[in-house]
């Protein structure tokens, strides 16, 4: 195997402007770059509207980017067209938030997963049954589930079927878009356990999109924190989620519900994300940030803090050990 | 100790779906005082919403309320008389649902919707009161009043729903997973706001949630419900410090912890997976400590450290 990352996102931009509010800043993804190493589980967290789902959809090719590249292994996925694109899709799969809308209600689980296998002709027809039964075992479904239809399954089982389909063609990368947020806590725990076990058995890398910091902390080794289309902090989970540097990450963590509430939860953001408040070329968090000051009217660069830990905040910039800065965004 | 505002005693509900009668709530008790936030926790399908809806006269079609009494303030109602419950409680009780946008009428501006509720209660100075209500829920009437539900954010929609709920000056608010559709930051703001309103107006709140970590900060007491049976109920602090019922322990072990990640221990099976026999502990099919005695009868309440637990494990200690 080569040493190339499974996924390399390079300066990806996809913006949606609101015709009713031409002066407001556009939502979407603006110039995001990051890598997912082979076999790595990377978490992508942020509030609704921060662009995390758009980013996920661009990565699996469900949405075309305005600019930038998606590189999967050694292929520029975003440059492929026609048959080559279709064939290559086997390498990037997605699991959606709501399995009830992403499964075909008229197909049994077996037929549904078989379709994925046949699409990419990954196994010979005679071996399909064996392969599908093995996949069911892998995601923790009983063999008799294979002959059922989606409406006969529970939410957790449906999500396992969605995972089965994604795994069927042995992809390089699976994007999981809020895979457990529609589930009960107890079912969520089951699905998360399965995902964690799976990760060791299949070679795929995972990009785990979620708004739940606790879930991300549990399952991901590295985390990206997104706000209004840009990554504001990234690094190993235990660093970013235990010692967050960016005020936004701190506020997200402070707001997370806990079994044992913290006596001093820390920073909290004011209000909601209002696009009209954010001016171009400034730090996007500024209007809500309790620590905002004059400098924040200029977008801060990404500051390298420690191995792999980076944050786009002037305060982080001040405390950064090196002066080796990379500009986080060309334009805001 | 203040008098309890709402007391539900021995509520039992049958479901008549698919032509079969099935007991879905069994001997449900609950007591909420004014100014208190009471947590009602359990997985989907455990009967949390059904119990609360039935106790204010809003049992869905296909449900048969078999027994139970509801005391609201000084009055007493039979739970089986849903019509009289509905008529008498509609002025004192407000509801808040999970999907705020679904609860608002898409064809009417949010200002008008709150105004309509307001007009049921008072005749004079509607506009002034309307602005005040918007201010109370943290919104600006001038900015938002003329907007339609699709033009506001999820958090704002939930605040508008809150304004509707508060417009009748209810003594009790039933909040059914009010923050599940919201972001964590908005969720926190919403719950804090709920707590402050509850203090200011001396309003009682029943907060229905499926996640124990949500109630930990804001409730003083709670009940944990599994398959229509209360398994553990009482003061929050001792329950969280030392959960006694295996189901409560299981729910806590299933929640991922942000501060100190540990292995998750999922609950096995599903809420209604056990036999349909009535006189048994309905958690036994999922319980790591299940024994033959669990199948014989519904475990009676055992009192310990300011809470009641329904489990044979603790019954033993009392008799010994």
TrEMBL record, chain A:
<dbReference type="GO" id="GO:0005886">
    <property type="term" value="C:plasma membrane"/>
</dbReference>
<dbReference type="Pfam" id="PF00005">
    <property type="entry name" value="ABC_tran"/>
</dbReference>
<keyword id="KW-0067">ATP-binding</keyword>
<dbReference type="Pfam" id="PF08352">
    <property type="entry name" value="oligo_HPY"/>
</dbReference>
<dbReference type="GO" id="GO:0055085">
    <property type="term" value="P:transmembrane transport"/>
</dbReference>
<feature type="domain" description="ABC transporter">
    <location>
        <begin position="7"/>
        <end position="253"/>
    </location>
</feature>
<keyword id="KW-0547">Nucleotide-binding</keyword>
<dbReference type="InterPro" id="IPR003593">
    <property type="entry name" value="AAA+_ATPase"/>
</dbReference>
<keyword id="KW-0813">Transport</keyword>
<dbReference type="GO" id="GO:0016887">
    <property type="term" value="F:ATP hydrolysis activity"/>
</dbReference>
<protein>
    <submittedName>
        <fullName>Oligopeptide ABC transporter ATP-binding protein</fullName>
    </submittedName>
</protein>
<dbReference type="InterPro" id="IPR050319">
    <property type="entry name" value="ABC_transp_ATP-bind"/>
</dbReference>
<comment type="similarity">
    <text>Belongs to the ABC transporter superfamily.</text>
</comment>
<dbReference type="GO" id="GO:0005524">
    <property type="term" value="F:ATP binding"/>
</dbReference>
<dbReference type="GO" id="GO:0015833">
    <property type="term" value="P:peptide transport"/>
</dbReference>
<dbReference type="InterPro" id="IPR027417">
    <property type="entry name" value="P-loop_NTPase"/>
</dbReference>
<dbReference type="InterPro" id="IPR003439">
    <property type="entry name" value="ABC_transporter-like_ATP-bd"/>
</dbReference>
<dbReference type="InterPro" id="IPR013563">
    <property type="entry name" value="Oligopep_ABC_C"/>
</dbReference>
TrEMBL record, chain B:
<keyword id="KW-0472">Membrane</keyword>
<keyword id="KW-0067">ATP-binding</keyword>
<protein>
    <recommendedName>
        <fullName>Nickel import system ATP-binding protein NikD</fullName>
        <ecNumber>7.2.2.11</ecNumber>
    </recommendedName>
</protein>
<comment type="subunit">
    <text>The complex is composed of two ATP-binding proteins (NikD and NikE), two transmembrane proteins (NikB and NikC) and a solute-binding protein (NikA).</text>
</comment>
<dbReference type="GO" id="GO:0015833">
    <property type="term" value="P:peptide transport"/>
</dbReference>
<dbReference type="InterPro" id="IPR027417">
    <property type="entry name" value="P-loop_NTPase"/>
</dbReference>
<keyword id="KW-0813">Transport</keyword>
<dbReference type="GO" id="GO:0005524">
    <property type="term" value="F:ATP binding"/>
</dbReference>
<keyword id="KW-1003">Cell membrane</keyword>
<dbReference type="InterPro" id="IPR003593">
    <property type="entry name" value="AAA+_ATPase"/>
</dbReference>
<dbReference type="InterPro" id="IPR050388">
    <property type="entry name" value="ABC_Ni/Peptide_Import"/>
</dbReference>
<dbReference type="GO" id="GO:0005886">
    <property type="term" value="C:plasma membrane"/>
</dbReference>
<dbReference type="GO" id="GO:0015413">
    <property type="term" value="F:ABC-type nickel transporter activity"/>
</dbReference>
<dbReference type="GO" id="GO:0016887">
    <property type="term" value="F:ATP hydrolysis activity"/>
</dbReference>
<dbReference type="InterPro" id="IPR003439">
    <property type="entry name" value="ABC_transporter-like_ATP-bd"/>
</dbReference>
<comment type="similarity">
    <text>Belongs to the ABC transporter superfamily.</text>
</comment>
<keyword id="KW-1278">Translocase</keyword>
<keyword id="KW-0547">Nucleotide-binding</keyword>
<dbReference type="Pfam" id="PF00005">
    <property type="entry name" value="ABC_tran"/>
</dbReference>
<feature type="domain" description="ABC transporter">
    <location>
        <begin position="6"/>
        <end position="252"/>
    </location>
</feature>
<dbReference type="InterPro" id="IPR013563">
    <property type="entry name" value="Oligopep_ABC_C"/>
</dbReference>
<dbReference type="Pfam" id="PF08352">
    <property type="entry name" value="oligo_HPY"/>
</dbReference>
